[in-house]
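User:
Can I borrow your eye for a moment on a structure tokenisation matter? Would you put together a sequence-and-structure record for a protein of your own picking? Please set it down just below, with no commentary around it:
AI:
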Amino acid sequence: MIVWRSFGASVIGPGHVATGMPNQDAWASFHHTWGDGIVVSDGLGSKSFADFGSRAACLAAARAVYSFRGAPDMDRSVLSDRIKRKWISLLSPLTPRDCAATCMFAFRLNDGVVHMGMLGDGLLAAVRADGTVASLSDDKSDGFSNMTAALSPDVTAEDWRWLSMPEEDCQSIVLCTDGVSDDLSDATGFVKEFCEAHRSLSSVSASRRTREALENWPTPKHSDDKTVACLFREEVDDE
């Protein structure tokens, strides 16, 4: 029998600890008879209520995915629009521009496909059954690293990046905010080693170990909040 499990952790960065700011990252997971998934969000640091925006983004994405349960197909444009609308409704009475946040997700809906989407920066990576890795990440080589796409009333499906693969080809998915991804010199190697080191653990133990790793992040003078979430496919005995 195939089951899907998840784990993750989010820790506040030293920079926010020093200034008395809250953790502006957030993550969530869901496991139901109709599907499984994970969501990660990073509130834009320049926004007054970025922490609220990231938490709302995770809830909005989970609710938008729920609305597709039992549907014959999953339309990307409709999904992205539902995430945006649910996010805006969750923010009331706050103003969306004060709550801008990125959003990454991965989920399955018993349709044989793992659906993944990314708005903004960070890293989304899927490890295939053959050990190869497919990924989405932000390209900061063009000099516009300070321009991050984020949830807003004006965002469209074209602002998102998408990835999908058959469930049987997908072994695990890792989502990281840029507090993690910006420090990786070998993202593919990190993802493969991270999955291998945690997949044999229980979700509670894997989450605890992930938190410890993020709290003891080795990059000198790192300051950003850090979040990692993982969704993985596991074969268990059907007793």
Observations:
- The radius of gyration is 17 Å.
- Confidence is low (pLDDT under 50) at residues 142-146.
- Residues 104 and 147 are 17 Å apart (CA to CA).
